[in-house]
Amino acid sequence: MEGSSATGAAGAVESLSISNSQDGQSSGSSIPINQLTLEEKYQIVRSVGEECIQEDELRNLLEKKPMPICYDGFEPSGRMHIAQGVMKAINVNKLTSAGCKVKIWIADWFAQLNNKMGGDLKKIETVGRYLIEIWKAVGMDMEGGKVEFLWSSKEINERAHEYWPLVMDIARRNNLKRIIRCSQIMGRSEQDELSAAQIFYPCMQCADVFFLKADICQLGMDQRKVNVLAREYCDDIKRKNKPIILSHHMLPGLQQGQEKMSKSDPSSSIYMEDDEAEVNLKIKKAYCPPKIVEGNPCLEYIKYLILPWFNEFIVERSADNGGDKTFKTFEELISSYASGELHPGDLKPALSKALNKILERSAACERTLQKGCQCKRSVKKGQGLQSHQMTRSWTFLQKGLCCPIRIFQDIIFLCCALAALSVLWY
Predict the structure, then answer these.
(1) Listed residue (303, 340, 307) closest to 322, CA to CA
(2) pLDDT at residue number 160
(3) pLDDT tens, 112-131?
(4) Do 92 and 140 touch, CB atoms closer than 8 A?
(5) Element (DSSP H or E) covering residue 303
(6) Nearest to residue 273, comparing CAs of 142, 148, 122, 378?
(7) Mean pLDDT value across residues 384-401
(8) Which is it for strands 69-74 and 216-220: parallel, antiparallel or unpaired?
(9) Is 211 exposed, middle or buried (0-12, 13-18, 19+ CB in 10 A)?
(10) Where are the alpha helices (DSSP H) in 48-87?
(11) What number is the average pLDDT over the span 250-275?
């Protein structure tokens, strides 16, 4: 068994194709968790991250803890692009197939602090519920409580006595310069003019890791700095068990030189509600120079979306152009592309077809949008949907059964003031 562990691990990762599942639900790994070796579990979990801090800690965690807790999160801030919709589903399914429990933090208060949806909590909640429905539809494996969605406003209100002292302690132990360096997590730069709320945001996100009792921080590379801050905080408080950072790859925009997708440039991304014509047009215009592999967004889409979803990439072409070809690995694909044997004129239509199949396959995406087309319009325009359920929960909030926004803002102001005074004092 030991001699075949590498082969077995590779097979375990390859068996994770979402397209093998039925009725739109992901099957996860075809190998039962109790039959996976430690090496197979490690390879599955490790395959999620472009970077892992630290690999030896991850291996040790998987050996000692039957169900590690992975923390992921998102700001409900508008339309969902395909990386957020599909890549997250793929990554979550890999983690759950290896025995992990995934806690997804719906950062509604954080979105308000970051002035998303104009800071309107009602609209933010609408978007949050909309995005959850898309994940369900796309095939995220939520059976048996493997995935738990937690609203930050609700959880923090219920355990405020735990949360705010932790946030203030993190703020007290870090100077302003260190916190501003984390501004990338909000989609801001260190040079941007930040509000007091946005300066406090990294302290809160750092606290989330401990508040959720996370063993693994599974976020994008753009969240790396605040995750490192959490590990540094462990050093400050002499805590031995540090959260493991598993940072996934950030898909680039479709145009040349775009390091990541941008919601301000719709042509740079494929969105979960894009129709076939929109997908075809965006891929047709995408940057994809012949024989160039480095910085080619079309190849990255195939590597991180198509191959994990289908376990293959099929190119249909005429006999004069070499005939149809099926690529099983990314290495095989880039070898063919770099040599010129595979031309962008054949690759792009094949990519468009595969992407449209995914969006079709996530019939939820379509069914949800058709069933609630007003919600689709609301998210696109940044306006909330006045559904009965959401109106009820907003009324519940207004009645004061949850912490009113005004009190929350007062708490933030007080905490910022205390943090600033402690920095000046020390």
Answers:
(1) 340
(2) 96
(3) 887 888 888 899 999 999 89
(4) yes
(5) none
(6) 378
(7) 34
(8) parallel
(9) buried
(10) 55-64, 82
(11) 84
